[in-house]
Amino acid sequence: VLEKMLLFTWIQPVMVALTILLGFVGFLVVRQREKQEKITTYTQRILLVLVLSCSVPMILTGLIFPMTNVYIWQLAPVFTALFFGVLLISSGAIFEFRFFYLGGILSWLGAIIMAYTLNSQLPIRAIVMICILIVGFIIPGILFNSKYKNAGQSNGS
After folding, report:
1. CA atoms of 106 and 88, how far apart (whole Å)
2. Distance of alpha carbon 138 from alpha carbon 154, whole angstroms
3. Is CB count within 10 Å lower at the N or C end of the chain?
């Protein structure tokens, strides 16, 4: 049992870092498109503020605070999922895209599951975080991207 616990101790920091990294990559993709357009819309400015407002707390609660022993590592994915849910639901409101809403709700449900399984011997938090990343972030991101690519092609862009 001890070997299994030691094996999974690195998973939580890696999952939190991956979540933050994926968010940053998504932000860079959007930012690159904005640079090509050379016009910043109100929606783009709001999204930038939202991403920064959620990313900084994710970095603090997901990496810095646990690294400095403010609280245990097991809580890091819980807090990260909560801020991730705020980011996704707010993005869903900005872009009127329901899959972001669903991803945000999934993130919050995942945070609840992770909070109540802190003492579990199984890697439940890692599995939940992977589900949040894939089902709550990657799939809606792909759907969102294809929606706007298709909209751009149908408009003649």
Report:
1. 10
2. 24
3. N
Report the distance separating Cα 111 and Cα 132, nearest Å: 9
| Cα 37 to Cα 17, 31, 40, 45, 142, distances in angstroms | 30, 10, 8, 14, 21
- pTM of structure: 0.74
SS (H, E, C) 71-107: CCHHHHHHHHHHHHHHHHHHHHHHHCCHHHHHHHHHH
User: What's the pLDDT tens digit per position in 54-75?
Assistant: 888 988 888 888 888 898 888 8
Tell me if 46 sits within 8 A of 110, measured CB to CB: no
Q: At what angle do helices 76-95 and 124-131 cross, to 10 degrees?
A: 10
Output the six-digit token pair for 30: 């959007």
